[in-house]
Amino acid sequence: MPQSHIMPGFRPAISFTLVYLSLIVLIPLSAMLLKTFQLSWDEFWAILTNQRVIASFRVTFVSALSAAAVAGIFGFIIAWTLVRYPFPGKRLFDALIDLPFALPTAVAGIVLATIYQPNGVIGKLVLAVFGVQIAYKPLGIVFAMIFIGLPFVVRTIEPVLQEFDTAMEEAAASLGANRLQTFIKVILPNILPAALTGFALAFARAVGEYGSVIFIAGNMPYISEIVPLLIITKLEQYDYAGATAIGLVMLILSFILLLLINLLQGWLRRRNGQL
Amino acid sequence: MKITAAAHAHKPLSLSDPDGFKYLLITLTLAIIGLFLVLPLATVLTEAFAKGWLTYRDSLTHPDTLAAIRLTLLTALITVPLTTMFGVCAAWAIARFEFSGKNVLLTLIDLPFSVSPVIAGLIYVLVFGAQGWFGTWLSDHDIKIIFAVPGIILATLFVTFPFVARELIPLLQEIGHEEEEAALSLGAGSWKMFFKITLPNIKWGLLYGVLLCNARAMGEFGAVSVVSGHIRGLTNTLPLHVEVTYNEYDFVGSFAGASLLAGLAVVTLVIKTFLEWRQAQDLKSARVASE
Amino acid sequence: MKLITLAKTVILIVALSVSFQVIADRTLLNVSYDPTREFYQEYNKAFIKDWKEKTGEDVQIQQSHGGAGKQARAVIDGLEADVLTLALSYDIDQIAAKTGKLDKSWQKRLPNNSAPYTSTIVFLVRKGNPKGVTDWTDLVKEGVAVITPNPKTSGGARYNYLAAWAFAEKKYGNKEAAKDFVKKLYKNVPILDSGARGSTTTFVQRGIGDVLLAWENEAFLAVNQLGPDQFDIIVPQTSILAETPVTVLDKVAEKSGTRDLAEAYLNHLYSPVGQKLAAKYYYRPFKPEFADPKDLARFPKLERVSVDEIFGGWEKAQATHFADGGTFDEIYAPQ
């Protein structure tokens, strides 16, 4: 039901939107759905409860969660610093934050592998100092996912911090709260929804990531094999039904994640509206 | 998924954080940005020039590299206008009208963003592949989609799907429709209203969406890799060419291709910063005007 | 107005790029696996020249390389290859079964099971062989890191696996012991890349692992291209006979009218020119008499057992070892 009867163009706009959406997204996605329906429920269940499949889901989700958490903390620190403290070269660093968006994933994968491998710049250092190998271990997956997730967190927290009313901090301080108390009681609750949204976005992106991860992961079944790689592996064994079954589960999970993120963002917008 | 181009221009706030804490955080920030962002960028360049300028130049002027660059440009040239057109239509429908199912539509628009690129490629194989829905028909009529340029374009259309729409929807909502209504009531036609009022209002946001869309279109790897067929000089885009040369032990060639893509990324960031700045300026002047 | 100009430009470019393909000469698409890149680069040039001399026609040859599984999958999904030059007959059998684009008896069409050249699996170790690896039994020792790709996706990896199995079955005399041996071997594998090239990069470029199980030609290539002073090739006493078959994909070649060209292309592989080039790029030629003796001298002597002999053919080997729930999965399952 159009909101304003004067406003033109609803019909053509929505028609084109829906047709294009159907052609590019919905019809191809439904092909996957139908392909999966060729399986009986038992077959479907057997594919999903295969140990290797479960392991790869575990690897993917645990890595994505840890990466999103680390990206959340790093992103918070960066956003805070960029918004609150003046320092030379700030604009440049601020612009650089979006590099992972703009850098193709294949390039990111090759470069990250080069840096974090045992004889790479950082890999060597970390191995010597901490005795930990990053690339070709599950840790490598986490590092690649932090890289791609970081901008999401920074860019969702930044605007909220900018809009944040310092009068509230000042009020808290004048009531005798120390800096830490102010931070925990006043700042954190206001930033939290944005931080959570950023975290969820980083997580959603990390779960589906392929290009940058496979170069650095090691790809060992049960240990460092991510779900998208398993889908490719199934495909290359001509197991289309298996590949689409796993793909469908991934798709449903992304859809749920997105719904949650949209709800979070709606909530965030309403909150901010009230501020 | 929303990364606002919103006001970056603002004054640093007066603070009560202790100096030591402040410097600690600045150091941490610089360390994270340095290790995670600057170092990878620098690595691309050092590896690309590892064997000197001449080798670098030769790698870039190799016919296969040139073909990959051409294909990448062609893909972007076709996908970006289509995604932009879709973005404008979708944003107009969603931001200017109320209808049921809007939230579902919004989520569906976002979906390609979080779908694994591998799945994006797979679904087109299921539809157009030889074993897929239209496989027999296509092969009878000698139409190539998968393992040819159309497949690459389709996969790219999928992964860039939300880029413009998601940029424009909040922007249109924020701007409101008063000016447009005023123009209409003064007798302007729909197109005139769109080009004279709406477009100037959203131009920076639109360009911003187009820019990000372009970066993704040129840089997509996973989805394109599934539908490309990897035919040298024919269906290898630049990101695929990077992978192929990497597998041929031609590391300089690989990083030379990567350096082009990294250059594209840097140019994207520069233009993006400019657009954000312009948008902030416009918003500021709009605010001043309304006060 | 602007949109229209843009649309016109796009249409023009699409039209141009399409017409380019129409104007071009007859082309042949050769879909191959990873390690043949260098060989076919030179062979294609030789063939184009030869064909021009014989018929006066200019032709183009397009190459596609990738992991064997990926390439076969692409062909099944419709990648229109005129000729296939893959790592193992199983993949071509699958293409025949799933697409019907060539006859099931394809392997009988050309000499030597349609393999103009063969190969085997050898060990690549770091210079001076610091871990003292001389034969298969050294690979299961503690502290020896072995690099091999994933047999589910890589043809070379399947040969690696089968070579190890064949050795153990011969040495210990039963399948249980062989399985145990292979299991121990895979315990020493820290990274499973999806293709042979990925594994070579891991071993050579990234410096991971003590032993790379590699195609013989890949090992030679790695040594020559990436550092003769860094690696040594170790040849085990027994290894596998890797028959790398070639064939015409009939339906595609007929449709695009390239059958004569495709057949000539493959027959030329058996000619003195093709055989000589194969040996030059470290493939063991079917007719060694055509190869340069200097090239032949580089091939070490070893016993090569065939997949048919030990495993009763690829179909069976695939079903027993590499299918889901097969021996490889059992070996890999966490305890």
Q: Give the CA-CA distance, first to last residue of chain A.
A: 31 Å
Strand elements of chain A, count: 0
Q: Might you state the CATH topology name of chain A?
A: MetI-like fold
Identify the CATH homologous superfamily of chain A: MetI-like
Uncertain residue ranges of chain C: 18-22
Radius of gyration computed on alpha carbons of chain C: 22 Å
General description of the model:
- The complex is a heterotrimer of chains A (275), B (291) and C (335).
- By secondary structure, chain A is mainly α.
- Helices cover 80% and strands 0% of the residues of chain A.
- Chain A is built from 13 helices and no strands.
- In chain A, helix 3 crosses helix 10, helix 8 packs across helix 10 and helix 9 runs antiparallel to helix 10.
- By secondary structure, chain B is mainly alpha-helical.
- Chain B folds into two domains: 39 residues; 240 residues, MetI-like fold.
- In chain B, helix 7 crosses helix 10, helix 8 packs antiparallel against helix 10 and helix 9 packs antiparallel against helix 10.
- The two termini of chain B are 32 Å apart.
- The relative contact order of chain B is 0.15.
- With 335 residues, chain C is an alpha/beta fold.
- In chain C, helix 2 links the parallel strand 1 and strand 2.
- The N and C termini of chain C lie far apart (68 Å).
- The chains are: A mainly alpha (275), B mainly alpha (291), C alpha/beta (335).
- Chains in contact: A-B, A-C, B-C.
- Chains A and B meet through helix 1, helix 3, helix 4, helix 5 and helix 6 of A and helix 1, helix 3, helix 4, helix 5 and helix 7 of B.
What does this entry show, briefly?
The complex is a heterotrimer of chains A (275), B (291) and C (335). Chain A has 275 residues and is mainly α.
Features:
heterotrimer; A: 275 residues; mainly alpha; MetI-like fold; 13 helices; 0% strand; globular; B: 291 residues; 2 domains; 77% helix
Per-chain topology:
The complex is a heterotrimer of chains A (275), B (291) and C (335).
Chain A: H1 10-37, H2 41-48, H3 51-84, H4 90-96, H5 99-102, H6 105-116, H7 121-130, H8 138-163, H9 166-174, H10 179-208, H11 211-217, H12 227-236, H13 240-274
Helix pairs in contact in A: 1-13, 3-8, 3-10, 6-11, 8-10, 8-11, 9-10, 10-13, 12-13
Chain B: H1 19-48, H2 52-61, H3 63-96, H4 102-114, H5 117-128, H6 135-140, H7 149-160, H8 163-175, H9 178-185, H10 190-219, H11 222-228, H12 238-247, H13 251-290
Chain C: H1 2-23, E1 26-32, H2 37-55, E2 59-64, H3 68-76, E3 83-85, H4 89-99, H5 111-114, E4 117-119, E5 121-126, E6 146-147, H6 155-172, H7 175-187, H8 196-204, E7 211-215, H9 216-226, E8 231-234, E9 238-243, E10 246-248, H10 250-255, H11 259-270, H12 272-280, E11 284-285, H13 293-296, E12 303-306, H14 307-311, H15 314-322, H16 327-332
Parallel strand pairs in C: 1-2, 1-3, 6-7, 9-12
Antiparallel strand pairs in C: 3-10, 4-9, 4-11, 5-7, 5-8
Helix pairs in contact in C: 2-12, 3-4, 6-7
